[in-house]
Amino acid sequence: MKIIFFVIALFISLSGFSQELKSSKSLLTALSQSVQNGKPVLLIVNAPKLAPQKDLTATAKTFKSALNENDVIEKIEKNFTVYETTMMDTSIRSIIRLGNIKRFPAYIFLRQSKEIFFSDFGNSTDKKKYLLMVDNALAAYKEKPIAALEKDVEADGSNVSLIKKLIDSRKKIGVTNNADLIEKYVSNLKVSDFDSYDNISYILESGPYADGNAYKLIYTNRKLVDSFYKNEPLQKRIAVNNAIISNTMIAAAKEKNTARAMAGANFARSSWTRDYRAGDKAYNNQMLWYYDTVKDTASYMRSALYFYDNYYMNVSADSIKKIEARSHKAAMPSPFHDKPVKMVSKEKMDSLMKLPGAKNVTTQSVVAVTSSSSNYAMELNNAAWKFYEFGTKNINNLSRAMLWSRRSIELNPLSGYYDTLAHILYRMGYYEEAAKTQETAIEKGKQEKIPVTNFQSELKKIKSKSL
After folding, report:
1. CA–CA dist 306, 333 (Å, integer)
2. What's the pLDDT score for residue 274?
3. Same domain, 44 and 119
4. Residue 58: inside a domain
5. Contact present, 142 and 165 (Cβ < 8 Å)
6. Looking at residue 366, what is its pLDDT?
7. How far is CA 329 from CA 292, 311, 324, in A?
8. 97 plus 202 within the same structural domain
9. Does residue 367 form part of some domain?
10. Within this chain, do residues 209 and 125 fall inside the same structural domain, yes or no?
11. CATH code at position 82
């Protein structure tokens, strides 16, 4: 069973919005109403509601978002059609992905075409935050739509100013994949333009392909590139590297271009400089993603056997837990640097952060979400399940998958992990042990208070040897 977790960082308190702000029934309805009334859409995306805790501070218990204040509601409803939902809403996933939305509650402003023109995030007791947000959104709405700018660039692809304006507009709404545009941008520059630090920075911040002309051309002035990586803030450098890797790998998968994938993976490796082991792990991790995405099963399995044995099985469970704790802490820097942050996984999302109360202090809350890339148990479980899904009957491959699955349970004994192990044991012909393991999955599922109907159905198949 494949499992995906999220890391949730909770800052101060979290409170759901009241129903005073009128919301459309769906995004489709909101967009339709937007066409009729001429108002753009305000998409409010909340984190899932968390179960209240008895030991919350007085401040947390009495927290009320200023979004509910009458003058804020009046200003929003006067200018926008509202649709309020949660991040689990499948109809908004493409918008969340395009806008690179990772902090919630998120406020995403859409044109009738679903084009994002402004976004903001966070919860506050200060109504000025929301009034200013509306003013900024209205100002952004008056700017030329990205779709129109794209047509302008298509009509005049040699106009550097137009290309730059389009890239800037995309950056404003959180789009980090501007690799194709930056290729077009550099093709219209002069050699002397690469002697400009601002130009070098601009190209890097646009996320160029690791094997593209833009990236190659900036290295004609290596001194400025080195200066960028030496002097710019760490967070900015990390964001640049992540954009380059992501854009290169996505394009490689889309084109089924293994050479480009290797370029992206090599860039990921080089970003670790002298930490050769971490660099090698980064390279293999990117290539695994590529092989999986393009469905190159043979290459995936060959790489996975090396990758998981070398980086996940040669380390003790205690060491893994320590590594994971450090990684989780480093992965989510708080925008409120003076506030402590508690990290919890998705299955413990109802654990709210405890902070001392304070009277007459403006309170804010933010939920930030990232994939839990360092979750060893989850990754081992998913790799084992993938080997099962591939349908392999090779006993050596299944034995390795079984070991990965057992290690995932050792690290975090979840019901889904037992389900994975039961399936692998069944494939190997250990029917009795598979049944017992699936029974454990059911017991664990009940303890976790999740539906176990599917686990029970799989148990029947295991016992009847019809799986």
Report:
1. 32
2. 86
3. yes
4. yes
5. no
6. 58
7. 29, 20, 9
8. no
9. no
10. no
11. 3.40.30.10
- How far apart are the C-alpha atoms of 106 and 121, rounded to whole Å? 4
pLDDT at 5: 60
CATH (domain of 429): 1.25.40
Are 106 and 226 within one domain? no
Query: Can you read off the two tokens belonging to residue 183?
Result: 């290729």
Sign of CA dihedral 66, 71, 74, 80: negative
Rounded to two decimals, what is the model's pTM?
Answer: 0.78
* Among 206, 226, 208, 229, residue whose Cα is nearest residue 217: 208
CA-CA distance, 156 to 153, in Å (whole number)? 5
18 and 80 co-located in one domain: yes
Contact (CB, 8 A) for 272 and 284:
no
> 230-244 burial string, b = 16+ CB within 10 Å, else e?
eeeeeeebebbbebb
Does a structural domain hold residue 301?
no
Q: How far apart are the first and last CA of the chain?
A: 14
Peptide bond into 105 cis (omega under 30): yes
Q: Which residues contact 299 (CB under 8 A, 6 or more apart)?
A: 291
> Domain of 383?
375-463
- Angstrom CA distances, 217 to 189, 214, 319, 336, 349, stand at 10, 5, 43, 38, 46
- Is 350 a member of any domain? no
Contacts of 360 (CB under 8 A, 6+ apart): none
pLDDT at 321: 72
- The answer on 180 and 139 residing in a single domain is no
**Which residue, chain included where needed, has tokens 């040669």?**
314
Beta bridge partners of 6: 371
Q: Are 208 and 184 in contact (CB under 8 A)?
A: no
- Chain-centre distance for alpha carbon 229: 24
300/290 Cα distance (integer angstroms): 8
- Per the listing, tokens 């050699």 go with 191
Domains held by the chain: number: 3
Mean pLDDT per segment of 10 residues, for the chain of length 467 residues?
59 47 93 96 85 48 77 95 92 92 93 95 92 96 96 94 96 93 96 95 97 96 95 95 96 97 97 90 95 95 94 78 66 41 38 35 49 71 94 94 95 94 96 97 94 94 95
